Structure formats: C-alpha cells, structure tokens
Amino acid sequence: QKTIAKIATCLELRSAALQSAQSQDEFKLEDLKKLEPILKNILTYNKEFPFDVQPVPLRKILAPGEEEHLEFEEDDEEGGAGAGSPDSFPLRVPGTLLPRLPSEPGMTLLTINIEKIGLKDAGQCIDPYITVSVKDLNGIDLTPVQDTPVALRKEDTYVHFNVDIEIQKHIERLTKGAAIFFEFKHYKPKKKFTSTKCFAFMEMDEIKPGAIVIELYKKPTDFKRKKLQLLTKKPLYLHLHQTLHKE
User: Fold this and answer.
1) Who has the most CB within 10 Å: 81, 88, 90, 228?
2) Could you write out the DSSP letters of every residue in the chain?
3) Which one has a higher pLDDT value, 59 or 100?
C-alpha cells in the first residue's frame, strides 16, 4: 500500500510537470519509467523506493450513492440540507485540463478563467478543486469532464484558482438548454473522502465576453436544474472571466 501510494505521488508530480511552463527540476519521463519494474513486481517489491516522496494519503473510494448513508455533514451552511450528497465519486487526481480545440471557420470556442470562489470557511478547505462539466437538460455530459488543479491559495473568504478551462465543444454545437457546471470539491480528513461542497452553473445565454459572477447552490449537484437551493443568504459567488475565440 505504501509503495502504491508513493507511485501515486510520482504520478501527481509528473502530471504537475506536464502542466508547468518551467521544465527544470520537474519530474521527468525518464523518472516515471523507473517505476515500471516496481509496478511489474508490486507484490514482491522490497527494495528502497527510488524517489524521496511522501505517499499520497489513502483516500476512501465510494461507489455512487454511498455517501448518502454516511453521517450528516457537520459543515452544511444555514442549517444544511440533510445527509451527505449522493454525488461522491472515485478519487481522480485533480488537474485533468484539456487543450483548446482546433478552430473552425464561423465557429466559436469558449475559454473560461476560474478566478476565485467566495466561501465563509475558505481557509478550512483541504485540497480544493473544481470539476467542470457541460450537461444537457437531462444531465447528460456533452463534453469530457475536466478537473482543475488544486487551488493556488486561500485568502480571507476566497479560494483562488486563476485557471483556464477550454470548453471542449464549439458553442454553436451545444444543444439548446445546455449548461456549464462548476462543482467545488474538497477533501474531508475525518471521513477520508473527497466531497462536493457546493456547485454553480452558467446557462447558454450567459456566454458573453468578460467577467461574470454566478451564484452558489447547495449540494447534491442538480444537473437537471429542477430543485435549486442557494448555498447561503450571504453574497458569495464564483468569479469567472470568459473569452470567446471565433474564426
């Protein structure tokens, strides 16, 4: 288990290296290849691990719906909505951002910069990141799901990201009634799993260049947008900036 957890750390380091503009002192492909014999002999490997890394904490992987049966959330806002959300998910290493699609004449691509999110307990969130998805009215994915890297910093009542998301479909090809969802997720050490704290969404008529702030809603994430409850009465929002690219 320790060896697998250290391998997971190396994979996170390699993922971070691929997303970084600076290449010096990063985890290289040659380093990653040193892990191959360890993986092949994982059950019998007893030598010293080739890299001085700390194991990624072992985190419980929950089946869809399993979180519903756990105890009540201790941090629900404004009285809370009851038991933990059913939208828990297997652990994915944050930072699965995709590059911009090739441009096409007459078609529009959208880049969304996630600037920051306002939360009353921003400083307490561990390893926070945002999952971005594009759903139709039935909650079906229209593009691949992307996770931001873990937030840059926490400051006062804000968690700062400053990360660009490239929407993986031309705007003209999105179905009527589609929406872009942003799920704020963080790790809960007491329960040993990653949880969705709140979510926000942007509808097609809100796609326009420039800054936009959107409201935060209580979990579980309602992809069909039928029973929405604001997270809090306080004025807390997700701050975004949109850029449209058209040939």
Assistant:
1) 88
2) -HHHHHHHHHHHHHHHHHT-S--TTS--HHHHHTTHHHHHTTTT--S--SS--PPPPP-PPPPTTGGGGSPPPSS-GGG--SSPPS-------S----PPPPP-TT-EEEEEEEEEEE-TTGGG-EEEEEEEEEE-TTS-BSS--EEPPSPSEEETTEEEEEEEEE-SS-GGGSPTT-EEEEEEEEEETTTTEEEEEEEEEEEGGG--SEEEEEE-EESSP-TT-SS--BS-SS--EEEEEEEEEE-
3) 100
